[in-house]
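Might you be able to consider the sequence and fold that I enclose below?
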Amino acid sequence: MKFEVYCDETLPDLFTSGKPQGRYLMIGSLWLPAELREDVKARIADLRQRHGVHGEMKWRKVSPSKAAFYTDLVDLFMSFGLDLRFRCIAVDHQAMNLDLHNGDAELGFYKFYYQVLHHWILDRNEYTVFCDLKRNRDRTRLHTLQRVLNNANRTSTIPEVQSLPSSEVVLLQLCDVLLGAVSARINERTDLGTAKEGFIAHLERRLNRPRLSPTHKSEEKFNIFKIRLGGGW
């Protein structure tokens, strides 16, 4: 089968910032069969029209005036069952050792991108990966990521890893919204406001979880991987 993966990140500068705004850098990914892309986009467009919501969907735009739209967006995500899946990784910047990445924070970042993607790539499938547009010091990062993924998954194919502006790609925007909710919980934000808290609570109810927190590796619908950089069980 052919699949598409849409990826985004939160707090990407944590590895280098002198004044970090959180503890966990997070990279998220939205997975779906390629044949479902237009159906998902059409249903999101219908939802926008019904609620009169225009412009880019983003976690930071979740507000009281748009709360109903964003909770319906959760219901839309859930309605596709396992045909629409989410996986993210939480990386503790306080435990990050740049010496393991040749002192290169950008290299370390893309190694964690690999961890998000590699474990959900199954045999005999094709995966096209779309990342939110990001300015890299090394312009070969995405090509290298594609090559490493192909080398590690010999019976599957990753024909392309490309970056696109999220303002033009609604599925990148959906990934941003879901990842923002998880990042807020994992980073223990207490200043979210009622709309964002309501969104998170609704997502937790629909997932039948008391709290958005790390899941077992076998979780298929909404997987949260909190990597242990120091080793251990």
Remarks:
- The mean pLDDT is 93.
- The longest strand covers residues 24-33.
- The radius of gyration is 17 Å.
